[in-house]
Design brief:
The complex is a heterotetramer, with two copies of chain A (81 residues) and two copies of chain C (158 residues). With 81 residues, chain A is an alpha+beta fold. Chain A is 22% helix and 28% strand. In chain C, strands 3, 4, 6, 8 and 9 form a five-stranded antiparallel sheet that branches. The chains are: A alpha+beta (81), C alpha+beta (158). At the B-C interface, helix 1 of B face strand 4, helix 2, helix 3 and strand 8 of C.
Amino acid sequence: MHVTVRLFARLRELTGAAELTRELPDGATVGAAWESLARDFPSLTAYTASVSCAVNEEYSRPSHRLEDGDEIAFLPPVSGG
Amino acid sequence: MHVTVRLFARLRELTGAAELTRELPDGATVGAAWESLARDFPSLTAYTASVSCAVNEEYSRPSHRLEDGDEIAFLPPVSGG
Amino acid sequence: MAPRVFQVTPDRLDAAALAAAVATRADGAVTTFVGIVRDHNGGRRVLWLDYEAYAPLAEKAFERIDEEARERWPEARLAIHHRIGRLEIGDASIVIAAASPHRSDAFVACRYAIERVKQIAPIWKHEHFEGGDVWIEGATADPADAGAREVALARACT
Amino acid sequence: MAPRVFQVTPDRLDAAALAAAVATRADGAVTTFVGIVRDHNGGRRVLWLDYEAYAPLAEKAFERIDEEARERWPEARLAIHHRIGRLEIGDASIVIAAASPHRSDAFVACRYAIERVKQIAPIWKHEHFEGGDVWIEGATADPADAGAREVALARACT
């Protein structure tokens, strides 16, 4: 299946991409999507412990199972205000 | 000696005067000024326990000794904001 | 010309102008409090309020509150404007602006200031409600009362 | 038309408009918090900030914060606008307005909201300082983290 991955702030800079299309095995979790991404962009691994994720514009968990066409966002620690 | 007495809010309404000139014995205190006023306007006595006073635009105490020409203000409990 | 930051005035209040008057390039936070005439009080339907002040002493009380706040939060700066005269429902009666490099001081200084205004500023509201009118009387004003100051600090959460 | 009260926008923020948008005739208090770009941070001289957001999720986070606040302070109403893009020193990055019949709820809801924004809104500041630039990274955003919510409540002094 294919998912869209959105990356923000420093994650966007480390990958050089605000948005990527990724192919994942059917039933892959959000956590698996992150691991797959970190294999291609090893500098992301520094964020494995602190990243948050959202699926289709709602906060989600690494254990969440993805569906074809989902939009995943990976969010480094936030600093709004 | 003569002093000016300023009255505010309900005290002004009870006496019908925002400002009065009062004659007091030399060396009279602020407290004595209030007592003298309350003799002429008995409805003021309800405020004896709660009134604040100022002399020449500074908060003062009942024991403060007045001088000729002073401006005394008697202030009911406040409700600004 | 910088506006006077401690003022009793018959004019309409402007919170944005007061916030701008206290904020500097070093400030990351401005908290403002606006007191508004509301349409009810203690079960009565309020029609309008008349505010009366002993203006010169009220402005000195605002300056005193500023000094008290600076003792406690040296980086915070305050401005206080209070309106007098007839105010309709929805009109702002008081604006307090507090600026500081960090938000915590801005919040606590602002809250402290409104608590102290209610304790020691010689200002009175005359409430006109459906069926009558009444002078609202709150605290006996005593700037030297340490207990009142403690209450204000506690409400400011310090 | 009433303005949208939870919004991420590239436009200049207007605290007075946001305060007006939340206040009703029943409210006696409006507290606003304005976050401003300040000229220093952690010993660095700041030149400007770039703010980036995941806007649709940030606006949902603002709505969530509003729901959390209503649970706790049912009479308080909140509005939150956050600006994105390049901001200069002195520019407002966020405005929060909280209206309530009584001042205590307005203060605590406003403080709670800014603490929660900093915890869970997907917004990032890229600081450009004299000599370099850095992405500021604060909290790992987790709306379900009850401990973070407790911290926000404690800072709001409840």
